[in-house]
TrEMBL record, chains A, B:
Keyword tRNA processing: yes
Protein name: tRNA pseudouridine synthase A
A Pfam family matched in the record: PseudoU_synth_1
Role noted for this protein: Formation of pseudouridine at positions 38, 39 and 40 in the anticodon stem and loop of transfer RNAs.
UniProt-annotated catalytic positions: D53 (nucleophile)
Cited InterPro entries: PsdUridine_synth_cat_dom_sf, PsdUridine_synth_TruA, PsdUridine_synth_TruA_a/b_dom, PsdUridine_synth_TruA_C, TruA/RsuA/RluB/E/F_N
Example of a GO biological process term: tRNA pseudouridine synthesis
Length: 246, 246
């Protein structure tokens, strides 16, 4: 039995999310179906670093699974990519110790949130960046973001319907990059609560476009109350970009 | 009656082409349907600078139509974009002289052909750039392209099933640009034959990846024979980028 760690990419547009659920197409199910076919219909369980919601993309999600099939990494990548639907790609594959766990061993994650700031959005980008109405001040967004860096209770930035008790997380960095007519927020931390990146994106966009004062970010953080915060920004601007391990 | 000239953008993925045809969804039909609705069901005929094939994109197609509706340009753009499907956007609108003709008055066009040269293509790009297998030499592609610049009979670069008699066209420039992990060929000329850009793209890719010698480009051009040339490159790498008028 060998444990494989793989880095995968998927276009979240046509999925109801990463994780298998009773209704709708999921990334996990598509991968498990292909693996099962490769193992004479034996079910293979795939474990990811975490789930992603409907419409959310991943350019660097990490999964692991166990197999008795012996193939070099390049062959694994080719075999999977030739059978997977075109909206999922395996980018990298390596064998790991049989105690490696894609979810429990993560030490951090990096997400990217993309706004298209063109006056009219080219249709090619419609599923891959949120069309931001208004001209944001990146300086204001940076200022607002600075209050969130560090270790805090992020209750104000966590979807209400979550069972997670401990809402303390550490954000290591939030940076903003202009790429042609897109504004990207790149956020890295030790872990993120449910919808945390999208609520932060929603709030910082409001700050950048002048709908909220910069000082409100700190107030909202201290309030520890989801209701005080901004609306969750749309799913299709979000990318899980990198998962870190020791 | 006012004649409007509009610049539009569309994602060719889910269209059978620009021009109305008996079976399948077309860009022209979608626009005419919206215009007809705006004119109490009076049919409005839309004329484009030229057709594009199934899967081919446009970031700067030009159309014209006549209307009795009086609206400022910004209102026209908003009204159309709120009713058009999300894979078509109106980018610009201006009134023109009633003798302006989107097709007959063109003095030139610019196309862009995109290859994704990443080892494994991220799924987000799968409909928007052709995954080029192999590492192309841009120098060789430039050398090959140089033989095509100027006024020539491009019979070797024209789909066989065309009724056009005069196959002489002028290519003003062919440039190559590296954008992250994409290689773009930008080609500008006074007009292009059916499939001409895609056949040129197919040939120059073969030259760049060493499957054909640079000298063959000249030989193929002089042969004036479609069969001597390369395979037509896939549609989804091609963008109609700009249409020129006097």
């Amino acid at each position: 039995m060998t444990r494989w760690k793989m880095t995968i990419s998927y276009d979240g547009t046509d999925f109801v999310g990463y994780q298998i659920q009773p209704n709708g197409r999921t990334v996990q199910e598509e991968i498990e179906n292909v693996l099962s076919r490769m193992h004479s219909c034996t079910p293979i369980r795939v474990v990811a670093s975490g789930r992603t919601d409907a419409g959310v993309h991943a350019s660097g999600q990490v999964i692991h699974f166990d197999t008795t099939l012996v193939l070099p990494a390049e062959r694994w990548i080719r075999a999977l990519n030739s059978q997977l639907p075109t909206d999922i790609r395996v980018l990298e594959a390596e064998t790991v110790h049989d105690t490696f766990h894609a979810r429990f061993d993560t030490t951090g994650k990096r997400y990217r949130y993309k706004w298209d700031i063109a006056k009219i959005q080219q249709p090619f980008h419609r599923n891959y960046a949120v069309h931001g109405i208004g001209t944001p001040s990146i300086e204001l967004m940076k200022e607002g973001a600075s209050s969130l860096i560090g270790t805090h209770d992020f209750s104000s930035f966590c979807a209400a319907n979550t069972s997670v008790k401990d809402k303390v997380r550490t954000i290591e960095s939030i940076t903003f990059v202009l790429v042609n007519e897109e504004l990207h927020m790149v956020i890295q931390g030790d872990g993120f609560l449910y919808n945390m990146v999208r609520i932060i994106a929603g709030l910082l966009w409001e700050v950048g476009t002048g709908r909220r004062a910069v000082d409100e970010v700190k107030e909202i953080l201290h309030a520890k109350d989801r209701k005080k915060s901004a609306k969750t920004a749309p799913a299709h601007g979000l990318y899980l970009e990198k998962v870190f391990y020791e």
